[in-house]
């Protein structure tokens, strides 16, 4: 299974067959956690999770919408 995934990713990123930039993002982070007593470490984890979520939303929605607009593709959401 792992070999298949790596081969699939390599084919997707192969620039000899198409132009433009490509990326595959894989992110596995600890979920947002709430405890009776949170430590500074938990504050840092939750803050980082929030910033990563903002980055994901911006990349997947705002930047994608701007690209659609540049290419005159209707965007409905």
Automatic annotation (TrEMBL):
Pfam families: Myosin_head
Record's GO cellular component terms: cytoplasm; membrane; myosin complex
InterPro entries: Kinesin_motor_dom_sf (IPR036961), Myosin_head_motor_dom-like (IPR001609), P-loop_NTPase (IPR027417)
GO terms (BP aspect): actin filament organization
Domain spans labelled Myosin motor: 1-77
Molecular function terms from GO: actin filament binding; ATP binding; microfilament motor activity
ATP-binding among keywords: yes
Keywords of this entry: Actin-binding, ATP-binding, Coiled coil, Motor protein, Myosin, Nucleotide-binding
Family: Belongs to the TRAFAC class myosin-kinesin ATPase superfamily. Myosin family.
Name of the protein in question: Myosin motor domain-containing protein
Organism of this sequence: Rotaria magnacalcarata
Lineage per the UniProt record: Eukaryota, Metazoa, Spiralia, Gnathifera, Rotifera
């Amino acid at each position: 299974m792992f070999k298949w995934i790596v081969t699939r990713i390599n084919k997707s990123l192969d620039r000899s067959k198409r132009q433009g930039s490509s990326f595959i993002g894989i992110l596995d982070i600890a979920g947002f956690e709430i405890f009776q007593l949170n430590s500074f470490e938990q504050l840092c984890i939750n803050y980082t999770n929030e910033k990563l979520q903002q980055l994901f939303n911006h990349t997947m929605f705002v930047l994608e919408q701007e690209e659609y607009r540049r290419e005159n593709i209707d965007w409905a959401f």
